């Protein structure tokens, strides 16, 4: 970055951001809805909507964003990280006894050897949940089973994919896991994101004791560096280095739904294969549920090499498939998906991936044009 541009950004943060960051991080004052002040941190050009009925805020903009000040002055990212995890600690446990009737089921899809260490650490954060009974289900698409490499207590299923076109079948894995789950609340969770130890407790309060059918209560996602991630494996400490990024308004990574509500809207869409699109599409259908979207919990993302094709211009899931699917009215998507045999461990439904059907005029006519006729 040009030195003068960098200097201008530094001066802007110093003059316009540091005072409000210092107040939000250091102040013991709670906001009117009970939020600590750090929950209200956002970029200068962003607007938060405060939950009038409980904790949390809603980001009043469409896409996820990074906290600019924490990127310009990483030390403030570390100050914020230490503060939020003092309120909502992340802990790890190697021991877990599965309850006969868990209240919350954490569901993870996995494939390959590259991120097993991250997966195990995430599972340990799930095992450390307090005050509620949980189970952790891993559906694994690796060539060889990895059950013996996971912490004891995981409910594990290895699913063969040799009969399918190579790809990342995250939606299919989530649906298989949902069919296996015993909990009334399902948490669809990425295998590289550690959760605070009262995450499940909060979900039970909102979704079993409370009225909500779906919940997205995440506020910040702290991306740890490679060094900090490796330190967490050996010591369990997360606040040793400034985070590389602090993300907000993120829809993927973790989302909860009541089991009956999840099946009523058709589960995850198994037509999405490989990276991108499935989380946004599912999130849009959760709009048909009583969906709690006010965020107040922090999470940690464990470092791993980035997926090179995830957000590229050639990612058809994001550039073409997702717009196509979101162009179909939600009730029609739900009608279509609930008719499918989703969560069948023998094969996904549909067998042909959406991105392989983009040039099929029949698919576009049946799906997209039908929606257009209804709107007209």
Automatic annotation (TrEMBL):
Galactosyltransferase C-terminal domain boundaries: 251-287
Keyword set includes Transferase: yes
Sample GO molecular function, one term: transferase activity
Keywords assigned: Transferase
Domain of life: Bacteria
Alphabetized InterPro entries for the sequence: Galactosyl_T_C, Nucleotide-diphossugar_trans
UniProt-recorded name of the protein: Glycosyltransferase
Species in which this protein is naturally found: Rhodopirellula maiorica SM1
């Amino acid at each position: 970055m040009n030195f003068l541009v960098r200097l201008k950004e530094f001066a802007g943060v110093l003059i316009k951001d540091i005072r409000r960051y210092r107040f939000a991080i250091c102040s013991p004052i709670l906001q009117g809805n009970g939020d600590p002040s750090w929950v209200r941190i956002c970029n200068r050009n962003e607007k938060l909507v405060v939950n009038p009925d409980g904790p949390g805020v809603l980001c009043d903009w469409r896409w996820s964003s990074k906290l600019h000040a924490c990127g310009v002055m990483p030390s403030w990212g570390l100050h914020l990280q230490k503060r939020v995890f003092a309120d909502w600690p992340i802990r790890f446990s190697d021991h877990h006894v599965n309850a006969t009737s868990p209240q919350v089921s954490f569901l993870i899809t996995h494939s390959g050897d590259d991120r097993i260490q991250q997966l195990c650490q995430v599972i340990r954060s799930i095992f450390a949940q307090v005050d509620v009974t949980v189970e952790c289900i891993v559906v694994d698409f690796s060539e060889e089973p990895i059950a013996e490499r996971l912490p004891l207590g995981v409910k594990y299923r290895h699913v063969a994919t040799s009969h399918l076109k190579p790809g990342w079948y995250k939606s299919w894995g989530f649906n298989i896991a949902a069919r296996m789950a015993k909990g009334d609340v399902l948490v669809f969770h990425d295998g590289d994101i550690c959760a605070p130890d009262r995450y499940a407790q909060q979900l039970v309060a909102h979704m079993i004791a409370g009225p909500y059918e779906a919940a997205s209560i995440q506020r910040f996602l702290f991306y740890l560096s490679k060094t900090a991630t490796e330190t967490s494996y050996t010591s369990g400490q997360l606040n040793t280095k400034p985070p590389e990024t602090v993300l907000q308004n993120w829809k993927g990574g973790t989302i909860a739904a009541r089991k009956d509500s999840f099946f009523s809207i058709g589960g995850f869409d198994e037509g999405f294969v490989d990276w991108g699109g499935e989380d946004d599409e599912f999130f849009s259908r959760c709009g048909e549920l009583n969906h709690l979207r006010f965020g107040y919990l922090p999470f940690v993302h464990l470092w791993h090499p980035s997926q090179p094709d995830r957000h590229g211009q050639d990612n058809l899931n994001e550039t073409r498939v997702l717009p196509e699917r979101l162009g179909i009215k939600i009730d029609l998507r739900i009608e279509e998906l609930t008719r499918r045999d989703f969560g069948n461990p023998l094969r996904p439904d549909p067998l042909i991936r959406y991105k392989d059907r983009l040039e099929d005029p029949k698919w576009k006519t049946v799906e997209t044009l039908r929606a257009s006729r209804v709107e007209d």
